[in-house]
């Protein structure tokens, strides 16, 4: 991202952000409420078109591509709320995520052409592979809405994985999860990255961020105020001020695995 920004009327939701997401690693985007984190994700994934700056992915300028084109380039995302088709089987819902990789059109579907049948078989295989990656292959035939909250979160991740992404954007993946579920989610994300995926996540649970992220990008009022390792970011005076400025002492900024922060720094 080079000088990335978007304005809604007179409000700069994201302003002049230049940053990189290192391949094969986990980058966490954090910041106080209203910092512009979800808007930043919406820009990367093509839901919003920036009013300034550009986005390059694997050497290609994708700044003005439509959402389905961004997905086709290898960027997939999940959302803050679990967005799955609860009335469908787990398998059928995840197959939808693979459709971006198919070629059959409406006429093929109506006539049940050979291309449509091949695409459907490919989508089924791709969906089952994605479900295996998130540990839900044995739940494929169940209605998605019958799964636990953790299970539904995994279905959402599988839908994104079914598009065969290189970069996976996770928007508050641990929202609504208890500590045990959060630990299992962290293990899943580590496994995905070990398998060659690049992950960027927005998350408020600082124990997850500090225990999982290789790099952290900090936004405040739509601007980047820090970027670095968890240890570096937890000591940055601008980051400490941003969190203390919007929260009481003992706010969101945490110290799960990073060394202790200086006296006066907030703790989870």
UniProtKB/TrEMBL annotation:
The keyword Ligase does not apply. It holds the Pfam family ABC_tran. PROSITE patterns: ABC_TRANSPORTER_2. GO terms for cellular component: plasma membrane. One of its GO terms (molecular function) is ATP binding. SUPFAM superfamilies: P-loop containing nucleoside triphosphate hydrolases. InterPro entries: AAA+_ATPase, ABC_AA/LPS_Transport, ABC_transporter-like_ATP-bd, BCA_ABC_TP_C, P-loop_NTPase. Residues 1-246 form the ABC transporter domain. Keywords: ATP-binding, Nucleotide-binding, Transport. This is ABC-type branched-chain amino acid transport system, ATPase component. It comes from Deinococcus gobiensis (strain DSM 21396 / JCM 16679 / CGMCC 1.7299 / I-0). The gene is proW.
């Amino acid at each position: 991202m080079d000088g990335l920004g978007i304005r809604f009327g007179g409000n700069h939701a994201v302003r002049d952000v230049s940053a990189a997401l290192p391949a094969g690693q986990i980058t966490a985007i954090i910041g106080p409420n209203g910092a512009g984190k979800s808007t930043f994700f919406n820009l990367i994934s093509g839901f919003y078109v920036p009013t300034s700056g550009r986005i390059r992915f694997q050497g290609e300028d994708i700044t003005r591509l439509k959402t389905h084109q961004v997905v086709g380039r290898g960027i997939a995302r999940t959302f803050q709320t679990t967005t799955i088709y609860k009335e469908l089987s787990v398998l059928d819902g995840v197959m939808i995520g693979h459709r971006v990789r198919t070629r059959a059109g409406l006429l093929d579907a109506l006539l049940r052409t050979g291309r449509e049948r091949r695409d459907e078989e490919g989508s089924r295989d791709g969906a089952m592979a994605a479900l295996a990656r998130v540990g839900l292959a044995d739940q494929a035939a169940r209605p998605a809405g019958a799964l636990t909250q953790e299970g539904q979160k995994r279905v959402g991740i599988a839908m994104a994985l079914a598009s065969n992404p290189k970069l996976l954007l996770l928007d508050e993946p641990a929202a609504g999860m208890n500590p045990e579920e959060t630990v299992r989610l962290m293990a899943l994300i580590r496994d995905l990255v070990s398998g060659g995926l690049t992950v960027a996540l927005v998350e408020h649970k600082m124990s997850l961020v500090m225990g999982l992220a290789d790099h952290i990008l900090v936004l405040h009022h739509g601007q980047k105020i820090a970027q670095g390792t968890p240890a570096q970011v937890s000591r940055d005076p601008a980051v400490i001020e941003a969190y203390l400025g919007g929260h009481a002492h003992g706010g969101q900024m945490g110290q799960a695995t990073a060394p202790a922060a200086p006296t006066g720094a907030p703790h989870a």
